[in-house]
Design a protein that fits this description.
Rossmann fold, about 50% helix, globular, single chain, alpha/beta, six-stranded parallel beta sheet, 6 strands
């Protein structure tokens, strides 16, 4: 079940309905769905806390995460390089029990998140947040009262990117046809290619390690309907 990210009232709902109707006549994007890590949040705290927990320098872990992802592996592989045989799930729980679990607050958000999402919703665009995250990360995001209609995570859905089933769940939540739903993400193999494969529109954001690494990649240029440097650019895309 999708968590409500922000409250609404009857008048606002009526206004949004009118706006949505108007937009359906003129626009190609009804719903914008955002990835989480390095799309709306910086991953600094996440990886720094893992490095501190494992007792290694923060730069060492960040560089290893970059290396394994560039090699096509899951980022958890970096933890296995440092500690072979590590049970990542068990270690995640041990961190929480030690009072050093996953945290996320306003300071982790990129500065453009609130203004861009607020502007999109004012235009009548449905805004969702859906990424490969833990249930706890989803709960923490909900406490931020983001200008979003709903927030969902892979752990909550029991299916993760790049599996097509994840994007089928995205479409159910979007309440819009695939070609009028825009998925925004930084990781081509997890966000852009699989979203495109199920018919969604896609925007690759050039920030975070993967955003820069693959920002000028010719394959991404073909698969991404838009390439952006800021979420603010989504306003013009949705108003097109
Ligand atoms: Mg991401």
């Amino acid at each position: 079940m999708l968590a409500r990210a922000a409250g609404s009232n009857a008048e606002r709902t009526r206004t949004l309905s009118r706006d949505t109707e108007r937009r359906r006549l003129h626009s190609v994007i009804d719903t914008v769905v955002l990835d989480v890590g390095e799309t709306i949040t910086r991953d600094d705290r996440y990886w720094a806390s893992w490095a501190d927990w494992l007792g290694i320098p923060r730069h060492t872990l960040s560089a290893l995460v970059g290396a394994v992802v560039a090699q096509g592996h899951d980022n958890a592989e970096a933890l296995r390089l440092i500690r072979p045989g590590i049970d990542v799930g068990a270690e995640y729980r041990a961190r929480a029990e030690a009072g050093r679990g996953e945290e996320l607050d306003e300071t982790d958000l990129y500065d453009d998140v609130r203004p861009a999402l607020t502007a999109l919703r004012k235009m009548g665009v449905r805004v969702l947040v859906a990424g490969n995250q833990t249930i706890r990360a989803g709960q923490l995001l909900c406490t931020l009262d983001l200008p979003a209609d709903a927030i969902a995570t892979s752990e909550e859905w029991g299916v993760a990117k790049p599996q097509p089933e994840f994007f089928e769940r995205v479409l159910e939540a979007a309440q819009a046809p695939a070609d009028r739903t825009l998925y925004v993400g930084d990781h081509p193999a997890n966000d852009i290619y699989p979203a495109k494969a199920v018919g969604l529109k896609t925007a690759h954001i050039r920030r975070g390690p993967w955003g820069y690494l693959w920002g000028a990649d010719p394959q991404v240029a073909v698969a991404a309907d838009w390439r952006i440097d800021s979420l603010t650019e989504l306003i013009a895309i949705a108003a097109h």
